[in-house]
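User: Some background: our group keeps a shared notebook of sequences we're curious about, and every so often someone picks one and asks for a predicted structure to add to the entry. Today it's my turn. The entry only has the sequence so far, pasted here. Could you supply the structure so I can complete it?
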Amino acid sequence: MAADADRFERVYQAHHRSVLGYLLRRTDEQTAEDVLSETFLVAWRRLGRVPADDPLPWLLGVARRALANQRRATARQDALRERVAAHAAAVVEHDAVRTAVVVEAMRALGERDREILALHAWEDLPAERIAEVLGCTRAAARLRLHRARKRLARAMLDLGVEEA
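Assistant: Of course. Here's the predicted structure to add to the notebook entry:
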């Protein structure tokens, strides 16, 4: 094992600058450093396959393939980011349109309906607590909330939205 470590150290010392130079002419510094590390990791793992007489071409071949793998991975990551960004933009646009429709539908409602819907949706109050705020019975609050929701759904249908 010590002989393998010594051989690897000699290969590394003799060729790491050449491999790094090769990589720097093809990519940015950070990627070159990453691929250099990967190249010598492969060399360590496959030390028995590293040519004894001139390991540089073998190392450059490993570096070339590792760099190609890195570029493919980056391209996949970029494509994924673009798909996620496009999806997120569509969701945001959909939500913005939906919010605008809800605001418009709320404007079409009477003050009492807007009040009870706001208490329920924005203040997060159940019908029992809404009854306390409005000074009515729980049954009356539930009925008013139910009717206000129906009127909101109708107003949204009038604006072209199928579900409230």
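Suggested note for the entry: Helices lie at 2-24, 29-45, 56-108, 111-121, 127-134, 138-158. The mean pLDDT is 89.
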